[in-house]
User: What shape does this take?
Amino acid sequence: MTHYKPYSPEWHRYRYLAEALNQYLDDYVENDVIVEDIQSILNSRSEASYADFNKVSELESKLRK
Assistant: This one.
C-alpha cells in the first residue's frame, strides 16, 4: 500500500479490497468462485444502479408534464 498516502480514502479502499481477496486466498477458495462472486457483486450493483436510473427518469418525466 505504499503507492497511496497512508489513511487516505484510496489507501482504505485498497486495504479493504486486499483484505477481502486475502481472505478468499487464505480460505483456499477456487479461482472460479472468486470470479463468480466478483461478477455477482458487480451485477447486483449494476441492477441497483439501473433501478435508480429508471426511478429518476420516471420522476423527471412526471415533472415535465
